[in-house]
């Protein structure tokens, strides 16, 4: 995917949904590689010129392609594992389009989305699995910021499956700790909501992101908020415990995606316990307690 010239003007990102196009840029670039870790034939279409412009105008918008690639790779690995172990419904609570549903053969797939983003059109005409899009704004069903409506939706989904996998890719960082805790408790209330895959960052990484990309996203109403000091342990009081935690840098280093100096850091053993001020991010697979 050709990279447009860097612009000096303000970022063209308009709202939180536009960041789906930004993420798609890096999946498209990875797809073009001969040694690609995944193939996403829909990424370039979703990214479009706007996605490239966003990457080129956001501060450090192109600086961490390796992290986006590692995140996608790990989500795909965890999803595949859970499908093999009997998951019969995947519920995507992220605002992003259901790229996994497009690229992978999934069981029933439910996307709970904020708005009618451009990526939803990519779902049309695909029949490798049952899909339903539940829009959070406009004319359809529910608003996840409404606690009672959210719980009603989860209860309805819980009755339709035996083993539900939750995805929140690129979502939790935009929520407050109180909102994340409430969401976790509501998910844990479902007897069939058994697994949850999320990306998570440390307080140190959160502060770094707030000083760079976060400044522009805050201007369009999408500030970065969530980077728990407890790390994955944040979720224990709310009904979830980690089964696997995979760091993005260490994963990306295995495939020589980061710059050389970062690969040196990626070869070091990861420290146990919360990362604190260290800039750390990873993908976590949780099970209900």
Q: Please give the share of residues in helix.
A: 25-40%
Secondary-structure element string: HHHEHEEHEHEHHEHHE
Largest sheet, in brief, is: 7 strands, mixed
Which class best fits the helix and strand makeup? Answer: alpha/beta
Strand content: 15-25%
Spatial shape? globular
Structure description:
The chain is α/β, with parallel strands linked by helices and 289 residues long. It contains ten helices and seven strands. It has helices spanning 19-31, 43-57, 65-84, 99-103, 147-158, 177-188, 203-211, 213-219, 248-254, 260-266, and strands at 89-92, 108-113, 131-135, 164-168, 193-201, 240-247, 281-288. A seven-stranded mixed sheet has the order 3-2-1-4-5-7-6.
Question: Can you tag this structure with a few keywords?
Answer:
globular, 7-stranded mixed sheet, disordered N terminus, alpha/beta, 289 residues, 7 strands, 10 helices
Topology:
Layout: H1 19-31, H2 43-57, H3 65-84, E1 89-92, H4 99-103, E2 108-113, E3 131-135, H5 147-158, E4 164-168, H6 177-188, E5 193-201, H7 203-211, H8 213-219, E6 240-247, H9 248-254, H10 260-266, E7 281-288
Provide a quick synopsis of the model.
With 289 residues, the chain is an alpha/beta fold. It is 37% helix and 16% strand. The N terminus is likely disordered.
């Amino acid at each position: 995917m050709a990279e447009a010239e860097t612009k000096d003007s303000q970022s063209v990102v308009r709202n939180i949904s536009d960041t789906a196009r930004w993420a798609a840029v890096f999946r498209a670039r990875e797809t073009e590689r001969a040694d690609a870790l995944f193939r996403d034939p829909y990424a370039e279409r979703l990214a479009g010129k706007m996605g490239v412009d966003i990457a080129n105008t956001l501060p450090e918008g192109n600086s961490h392609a390796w992290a986006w690639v590692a995140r996608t790779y790990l989500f795909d690995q965890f999803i595949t594992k859970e499908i093999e172990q009997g998951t019969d419904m995947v519920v995507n609570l992220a605002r992003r389009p259901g790229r996994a549903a497009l690229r992978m053969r999934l069981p029933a797939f439910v996307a709970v989305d904020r708005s009618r983003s451009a990526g939803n059109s990519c779902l049309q005409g695909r029949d490798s699995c049952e899909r339903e899009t539940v829009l959070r704004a406009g004319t359809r069903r529910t608003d996840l910021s409404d606690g009672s409506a959210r719980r009603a939706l989860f209860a309805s989904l819980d009755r339709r499956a035996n083993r539900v996998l939750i995805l929140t890719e690129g979502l939790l960082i935009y929520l407050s700790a109180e909102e994340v805790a409430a969401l976790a408790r509501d998910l844990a209330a479902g007897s069939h909501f058994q697994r949850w895959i999320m990306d998570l960052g440390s307080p140190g990484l959160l502060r770094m992101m707030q000083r760079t990309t976060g400044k522009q996203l805050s201007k369009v109403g999408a500030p970065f908020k969530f980077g728990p000091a407890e790390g994955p342990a944040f979720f224990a009081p709310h009904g979830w415990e980690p089964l696997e935690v995979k760091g993005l840098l260490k994963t990306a280093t295995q495939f020589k995606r980061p710059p050389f100096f970062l690969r040196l850091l990626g070869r070091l053993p990861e420290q146990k316990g919360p990362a604190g001020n260290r800039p750390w991010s990873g993908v976590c697979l949780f099970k209900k307690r």
